[in-house]
Amino acid sequence: MSTALAESAAGGLNPLRQTRPRYGEKVIRVILFAAAAVSILTTFGIVISVLIPSLEFFAEIPITEFLFTTTWTPLFANPQYGVLPLIMGTLVITLIAVLIAIPLGLGSAIYLSEYAKPRARKVLKPTLEVLAGIPTVVFGFFALDFITEFVLKPIFPGIQVFNALSAGIVMGIMIIPTIASLSEDAMAAVPGGLRDGAYALGATKRQTALRVVVPAALSGIVAAFVLGISRAIGETMIVTVAAGLQPNMTLNPLEGMQTMTSYIAAAGAGDVATGSIEYKSIFAVGLLLFIITFFMNMISIRLVRKYRQAYQ
Amino acid sequence: MTATLDIAPDSAPVDLQGRGQPLVDKTFRWILFLCLAVGIVFLAVLLAYVTIKGWPRLTPTLWENMPSLRRPEQAGAQSAITGTLWVIAFTALFALPIGFLGAVYMEEYANPTSRFTRFVEINIQNLAAVPSIVYGILGLAIFARALALGQTVITAGLTLALLVLPVIIVSTREALRAVPQNIRHGSLALGATLWQTTWRQTMPAAVPGMATGTILALSRAIGEAAPLLLLGAVTFISFNPTGPFSAYTTLPIQIFNWTKESREEFQILASATIVLLLVILLAMNAVAILIRNRTQKRW
Question: Fewest C-beta atoms under 10 Å: which of A85, A198, A293, B188?
Fold first, then answer.
């Protein structure tokens, strides 16, 4: 429809000739266009602001040293910039989060979409979504002050105060609503006829849910997983508060670790001199983070389009 | 559909009411329910924990006194409350007009099949998922340093405005899309221009949906801390902001600063401030739900 409106507004094939030119309408159109273009300028701004200092950074530190060495000590007298420990920290915490969020998020989505009665759903779904509205610094505080102290310490007496496990667990709970609500959307888009067909063949509700609805909604569900992982990688406050600020090349989740995001937060929060190599390192890590999440977001957007096209 | 269904030939006939379900099916249902319950129980424990822990400090001193690192037993969060109000006011000032007008362009003016429109759509979807700390980098490089706005209220407002812009655009577009075509066609048939139709018919009809989306976007901005870490909010601030170019702190940042202190008094103070922040956010969400329920219009 907006095509038709747009054409008639532009005065294309308009049978009723305009009696007087309406410059106001054209001005308004330009203003509206400019507002929509701000979003493109934002992306452009992000790319420019991470790219230029990063290029200066890589002029001093070879990109191979940045990507493939394992010591990250920007504050030492002889600073070394091997980003692998930060990537390791990010991966370990994201993996813990994903191991929690994928089963719980998908289970919640199947329950809400296939099992819950409409009245129960009306209460349960918004309650779960309140989780998504809790500020992440609150989750960080809870991970450090409650999960580590009262849940993990009794189980693992040797656990460090700042550790990857508490941050990963809480981050996993945080992304449940993201995964649950997008997966549920995808399952709701599966035509009822497919379910009826399965029931007619004698399938139980579980068989229908697991072998018909979930496979039919798979691209949407995978999109939800990818978006959830992307959010876990980019999450800052939980890891900054609960996982510590020590770069640590380890797989042991009971130790403290620094992630890409918590390095950016810690280094950016200090008073770094503009133009110093340490200042530029914030942008180099930011560029890496932006590239990783950008690719994951694109995969997710593609997959969502795919299931929308299949069923609409 | 190539789903194979393993129904044992000797299994009892399935009761259509679901009472004769095999045990596996009942167990499966319970496991799914437990998945959902984990998230909800976690939420309940979190709310109970911060309320109980922060209870002794949930007194007027919390909003009457300024933060202090020396005397936690008397410290408050007044500068963080006023700082949050200042920053959010500027976020709204920048984000709302741009978000509303951008959404109107995308929904009412743009040709939905054109490449440019699709590019803008994908771009907005991606921006909605860019980590918030990356917006902090943008704010640091462009607003704080390149435009020399420094670490001030206005830098924070501009940065958070860009952060919530995708949320506002998406929710406004949904609100506009829910207005039936008849309204637009009727207006155009009476000789109104496209803008007259949009401004006098479509947008007023979409106001409740736009308001709901706006409240949700601003409540996200209120809880956001990561980008502000890069924009100078961490500095110890014990005064209220005096204008757009004043230094500031906000509630999430104040909470963050207190969690870093090892003394238990500060953790209690952090809990009390968390309760305050959550009450503000819950109140905003309640208003959004109220608007949605009150004004739900059947066309």
Answer: B188
